Amino acid sequence: MQSVPSQAIRPLSLNASLSSYRLPIFHKFRIDSAIYRKSRNSPSFLTLRCCDGSSGGPVIAKPSWELRWNRGVQEPDEKVVALRRLFSKPGIGIDAYIIPSQDAHQSEFIAECYKRRAYISGFTGSAGTAVVTKDKTALWTDGRYFLQAEKQLSSSWILMRAGSLGVPTTNEWLNDVLAPGGRVGIDPFLFSHDAAEELKEAISKKKLELVYLYDLNLVDEIWKESRPKPPNKPIRVHEMKYAGLDVVCKLSSLRAELAGTVASAIVISMLDEVAWLLNLRGSDVPHSPVMYAYLIVEAEGAKLFVNESKLTPEVMDHLKNAGVELRPYDSILSDIKRLAAQGAHLWLDTSSVNAAIVETYKSALDKYRTNHRGRGKINNKQYDESNGLSSGPSGVYMRSPISLAKALKNPAELEGMQNCHLRDAAALARFWCWLEEEIHKNVKLTEVDVADKLLEFRSKEDSFLDTSFDTISGSGANGAVIHYRPEPENCSVVDPNKLFLLDSGAQYIDGTTDITRTVHFGEPTAREKECFTRVLKGHIALDQAVFPENTPGFVLDAFARSSLWKIGLDYRHGTGHGVGAALNVHEGPQSISYRYGNTTPLLKGMIVSNEPGYYEDHAFGIRIENLLCVQEINTPNRYGGIEYLGFEKLTFFPIQTKLVDLSLVSNDEIEWLNNYHSHVWEKLLKELGTLRVQYILHQLTVRRREQRQNSGSTSRLGRQAASVTDARGSSRRPSLSVYCPEMSTTAETERSTPTAQKGRRFGRNSDAGNSQKAVTETRVRPEYRSPAGATRAGHVLLLVHSHYSI
């Protein structure tokens, strides 16, 4: 594995002039393309068998996935019946049909008109695959959506809990339920070429045939008049002050990559890659500032396939100046055929480009080869017969270089992300202030009420565009549904005596946010506090991780899970995902996950989430999420001469400390939390416009006196933790505190250095051994009391209500 050139990963300084910025955006970073392909030789799931003494042969036990939650099996609904009628139509002739979640661009979030799987099954989660045969219906989804799918699927559907022991994959199940010679239909626009090839190979073992239905999507046929219209919203230019690099520069870098291969053009189908490369933003997809379009970049030009009615005069001029021509969105296959007919050697990322495009190219290229065989002419200047392709050129099938270039944020993008996170935190502070007061006034608020009010507060912030995903607002048991989406007709009232999980984010002109906080408005149970504390310990461990360059994300995943593992707990989702800069809230290629197939290393400038969690079915859910930026860490040593990396926080908002069980946390972890909250105050006091908001932040970060006194008093772990001594041999443990300037009349002030932040700020490169300016940190004494009403200390006014005891 090649490391990134040193000049490409120098420390990023937001004070540096963009004109002097020379970061190569397309690195000579190569990983064997086979690494990125899904394994086609994965071991199958275990099959439970037993021996029947009477017959002497094995008897296959009824699979757990056939069980229907003790409900009677219903007849399939009219949509499924109508779909099955199409199976036997002339030109179709299939025995099963697969409906994935994706659109033609393999998007996670899609326009309403492309939500075919949700339409046919009733399951609205963002990930899942539905399969309809002549007599069965089944849906696969991952652990984030098990509980949601249980609620939304009718009993005529089999829920396949993907990844669980004994649950077959889609391919394995089709091989089991279809007879040899059966035909499986798909819409090739909705499958990446790699996914379609994997499916084809897997079902061929049972002599099943994969049928590409190019001209007809069966779900669209039955959806008809009720189907929403395709989006046609205007596209806008993403200004240079936010983009950091102009389109000409990006296209030049991409063409330099092309020159290093035998490809003469690259086909780009991922919507965020098109938007990033052309410095354009749209609103075709909910929560994602992208537009439906394809892009083909050639050595001498570029063609954008888009509905021209979306283009404003400003956008038209912007594209013209960059040398980009326009083509109708639906003409992409025609242009692919044209290029193949010229013998063009196309670069296709088969993990994202759909099977319809790739198969169209291959078919047209075969015709070209047939017509030119033996003539000795190859219409491609970069083609070299010494490469062994004597019959003519073929495609270059490897990962798009844009994915990595987009993930490495430049200084302008990082500055935008920092700024939007501060505005977002201010909106969150005002919102939590409102929510806290409403709850303590015994106002009955539903989960939808809470989500709507948060949107109202965010929409008042400068440059707000949209939420970055559907807000997850879950009280009590609903918090255990990892991607829960409350609906007005069936949501719950927020219960002050249960945990409340709020996962939300926003799209601003200059950046994208994603934050999760879990709180309790009453008195949490010991179980809730222990689980919350272990999630927090994992969050802190990952935040503080230091690792050598070229470390892939899966290596760090255990940092976040270790504390939960110690008591046999875990969570069914990745720990971190990439985040775009004013783009998709979920971005690749980087991730932090237990899935070790993604070997993309974490590199400077990448943004990832840190979101461990724990979910107790039908009881509660806990998740704590911040966004982090990968930065260089100035370690005292550099073993092997390599750089060491760590994380810089982008998210600044309090973590509720009354949920922390002090008997489970170390001195260093308490210090981390105190330092984090001091930085929250330092950054947000400039943003907050009301004294009430300052008060609510104070309440979130100060533990009640009785909690400090009683924490761990009867716990074995608590007694052990209390005996831990610091480096000076003292048994005194630091208390949780809050940064609150000019409170000297009621609090003690001490000088401390936030060691967790040393050398890890944007634009700062101080050595670990150098002195660093100390931060004044105020620690509220446990015995501090305030009467109901208002108390002024300096210029900070704390509105202390009678129901609080500090």
TrEMBL record:
Residues 415-632 form the Peptidase M24 domain. The keyword Transport does not apply. Residues 379-393, 743-756 have a biased composition (Polar residues). GO terms for cellular component: cytoplasm. Belongs to the peptidase M24B family. This is Long chain acyl-CoA synthetase 7, peroxisomal-like isoform X1. Residues 373-394, 704-782 are annotated as: Disordered. Residues 93-208 form the Creatinase N-terminal domain. Keywords: Hydrolase, Manganese, Metal-binding. It holds the Pfam family Peptidase_M24_C. It comes from the Eukaryota. Residues 643-690 form the Peptidase M24 C-terminal domain. Its cofactor is Mn(2+). GO terms for molecular function: metal ion binding; metalloaminopeptidase activity.
